[in-house]
């Protein structure tokens, strides 16, 4: 929002929320009806029918730029600005598709009012030439002065400051403007479109190509990594007056009073508003190499739909805790395509980059879904991918690699110990984060608790929790007989006194892991607090009980570049397994934490608090879910 919002700031359909797309329904329906009702042998008006598919194409085009930009900036090569993106920017830019809806409505309205728009040819050279000349001449000139006017304090405070709230830009930042400002831009860009239509030189390619050109240049100019190779300017020197670069426009967002031009810097040269550091920043960005991370967290995809929740996916969706959306079934072709790509693609990929204190952090993902980790024939492939990531990290001199989700599964690789046995000489330290996960669960149990129920499949974390509780005098009631026997065999006689088979279910504190079924949850009394010790949350079947988060902590405020949620966790909350790797590097611990290795739980918990990570209280978690 601008600092002093002016009239026509809000979009007319804001009140419709996610249902705003219904404003196009009458027009799309009418175009389909025109196809169905046409007489036999009559000509099909392709231009009319293609409007809606073209809008979808524009959305896809924008999304490709979003994903590419986030991937490239996460890797770090050719990055322009080091400043970070936070949740407030994602929230401000989540309605980037509003301008596509506006254009769609105006296209349909223009078609109905202008007879010359009917039955356009696919190609006309004269129309393309005319559009090009109009853009180079009046459009670039008029935009330059409109842009300078928008930087006058009156218009800037009421409109354009909303766009400049984003210092570090993403591709979609290019279209984040108040409604009135977009009207002004449309009237400007409408000049070549209307001129070619009135002169009957318009074609589908000239109209669609011009809009695609605008989208392409807008997205490129705001992508925060330099993409234009130097050879283009050395081969054709005048090009520097005709095409800007991402670093060129980035200076406008940091300096505000320079580099006003739309896509062609020529008017900045003419009117003396060229930033003197434009060439220097361009060359510096081209040569820039991404910093090697100190800590890498290795995760994986969860469900087929989780590809959209990655930071590389839908920005607004990734900024909220993961939940399945009803409209995803409409996207099944894209989901199926992404599954095929991940199936074929045989290498980890970069998801996210963060900075904390003096550490550079990076998150990588294994292109495998949760269900594949339980397929016997997939385990060797998955282990090879994990091992490859570990060896690559070792070669790059990375200090710590933490194993997230099922990448540390006991059946898969014995909590990572397999890799240490195969490569005892590696310098990178492997961390499964079990010690901190145990500490988080223990400190999530309400003070004064004297007994708990332990259910779900046993794990390294579950065994350590049971041991700590029994040694501390808390009664642990095992939900299943076979788990009771396994736990008892691992406890000392003194501790085993506090381990009991669960014959009654009066305790309202249940510590649960994977495999907890519906019937077992129904045994819990009303008001029970389910505290997971597993990587994945249990399936919720009780509305009269409370389900706590999987082991996690709140990140410090100075933890940088946090603009997406980690799976199902709330904003700025990070899993214990991921935090453990960061603590390992901050404390300079020189041991692996994998296999049966466990660190001192109190020591790890104290380290997490000392570095600013905060526990999630039951009360705050209840408020976040309300």
Automatic annotation (TrEMBL):
<keyword id="KW-0472">Membrane</keyword>
<dbReference type="InterPro" id="IPR006694">
    <property type="entry name" value="Fatty_acid_hydroxylase"/>
</dbReference>
<dbReference type="Pfam" id="PF04116">
    <property type="entry name" value="FA_hydroxylase"/>
</dbReference>
<dbReference type="GO" id="GO:0016020">
    <property type="term" value="C:membrane"/>
</dbReference>
<feature type="transmembrane region" description="Helical">
    <location>
        <begin position="46"/>
        <end position="66"/>
    </location>
</feature>
<keyword id="KW-1133">Transmembrane helix</keyword>
<keyword id="KW-0812">Transmembrane</keyword>
<protein>
    <recommendedName>
        <fullName>Protein ECERIFERUM 1-like</fullName>
    </recommendedName>
</protein>
<dbReference type="InterPro" id="IPR050307">
    <property type="entry name" value="Sterol_Desaturase_Related"/>
</dbReference>
<dbReference type="InterPro" id="IPR021940">
    <property type="entry name" value="CER1-like_C"/>
</dbReference>
<dbReference type="Pfam" id="PF12076">
    <property type="entry name" value="CER1-like_C"/>
</dbReference>
<feature type="transmembrane region" description="Helical">
    <location>
        <begin position="183"/>
        <end position="211"/>
    </location>
</feature>
<feature type="domain" description="Very-long-chain aldehyde decarbonylase CER1-like C-terminal">
    <location>
        <begin position="452"/>
        <end position="615"/>
    </location>
</feature>
<comment type="similarity">
    <text>Belongs to the sterol desaturase family.</text>
</comment>
<feature type="transmembrane region" description="Helical">
    <location>
        <begin position="326"/>
        <end position="346"/>
    </location>
</feature>
<feature type="transmembrane region" description="Helical">
    <location>
        <begin position="128"/>
        <end position="146"/>
    </location>
</feature>
<feature type="domain" description="Fatty acid hydroxylase">
    <location>
        <begin position="133"/>
        <end position="273"/>
    </location>
</feature>
């Amino acid at each position: 929002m601008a600092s002093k919002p002016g009239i026509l700031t809000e979009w007319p359909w804001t009140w419709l929320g996610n249902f705003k797309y219904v404003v196009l329904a009458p027009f799309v329906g009418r175009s389909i009806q025109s196809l169905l009702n046409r007489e036999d042998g009559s000509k099909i008006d392709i231009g009319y029918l293609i409007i809606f598919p073209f809008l979808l194409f524009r959305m896809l085009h924008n999304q490709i730029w979003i994903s590419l930009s986030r991937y490239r900036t996460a890797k770090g090569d050719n990055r322009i600005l080091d400043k970070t993106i936070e949740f407030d920017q994602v929230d401000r830019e989540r309605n980037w598709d509003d301008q596509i809806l506006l254009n769609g409505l105006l296209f349909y309205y223009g078609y109905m009012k202008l007879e010359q728009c009917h039955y356009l040819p696919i190609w006309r050279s004269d129309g393309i030439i005319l559009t090009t000349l109009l853009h180079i001449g009046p459009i670039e000139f008029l935009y330059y002065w409109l842009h300078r006017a928008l930087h006058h304090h009156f218009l800037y405070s009421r409109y354009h400051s909303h766009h400049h709230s984003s210092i570090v830009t993403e591709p979609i930042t290019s279209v984040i403007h108040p409604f009135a400002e977009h009207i002004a831009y449309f009237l400007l860009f409408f000049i070549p479109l209307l001129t070619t239509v009135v002169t009957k030189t318009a074609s589908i390619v000239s109209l669609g190509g011009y809009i695609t050109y605008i989208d392409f240049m807008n997205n490129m100019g705001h992508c925060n990594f330099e993409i234009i190779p130097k050879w283009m300017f050395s081969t054709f020197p005048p090009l520097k007056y005709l095409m800007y670069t991402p670093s060129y426009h980035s200076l406008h967002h940091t300096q505000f009073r320079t580099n006003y031009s739309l896509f062609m810097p020529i008017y900045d040269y003419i009117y003396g508003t060229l930033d003197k550091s434009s060439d220097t920043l361009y060359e510096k960005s081209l040569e820039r190499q991404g910093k090697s991370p100190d800590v890498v967290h290795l995760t994986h995809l969860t469900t087929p739909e989780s590809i959209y929740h990655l930071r590389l996916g839908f920005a607004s969706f990734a900024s909220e805790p993961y939940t399945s959306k009803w409209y995803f079934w409409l996207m099944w072709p894209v989901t199926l395509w992404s599954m095929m790509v991940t199936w074929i693609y045989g290498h980890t990929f970069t998801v996210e980059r963060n900075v904390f204190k003096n550490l550079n952090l990076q998150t990588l993902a294994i292109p495998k879904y949760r269900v594949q980790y339980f397929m016997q024939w997939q385990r060797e492939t998955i282990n090879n991918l994990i091992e490859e990531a570990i060896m690559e990290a070792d070669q790059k001199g990375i200090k710590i690699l933490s194993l997230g989700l099922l990448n540390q599964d006991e059946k898969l690789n014995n909590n990572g110990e397999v890799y240490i046995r195969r490569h005892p000489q590696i310098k990178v330290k492997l961390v499964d984060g079990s010690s901190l996960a145990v500490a988080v669960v223990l400190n999530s149990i309400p003070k004064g608790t004297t007994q708990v129920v332990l259910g779900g499949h046993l794990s390294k974390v579950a065994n350590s929790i049971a041991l700590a509780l029994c040694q501390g005098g808390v009664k642990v009631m095992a939900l299943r007989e076979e788990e009771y026997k396994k736990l008892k065999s691992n406890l000392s006689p003194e501790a085993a006194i506090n381990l009991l088979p669960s014959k009654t279910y009066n305790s309202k504190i249940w510590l649960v892991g994977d495999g907890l079924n519906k019937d077992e949850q129904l045994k819990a009394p009303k008001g029970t607090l389910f505290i997971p010790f597993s990587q994945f949350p249990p399936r919720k079947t009780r509305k009269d009980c409370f389900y706590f988060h999987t082991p996690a902590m709140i990140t410090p405020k100075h933890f940088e570049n946090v603009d997406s949620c980690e799976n199902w966790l709330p904003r700025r909350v990070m899993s214990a397994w991921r935090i453990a790797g960061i603590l390992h590097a901050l404390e300079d611990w020189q041991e692996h934490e994998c296999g049966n290795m466990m660190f001192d739980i109190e020591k790890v918990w104290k380290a997490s608090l000392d570095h600013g990570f905060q526990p999630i209280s039951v009360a705050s978690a209840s408020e976040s879910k309300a």
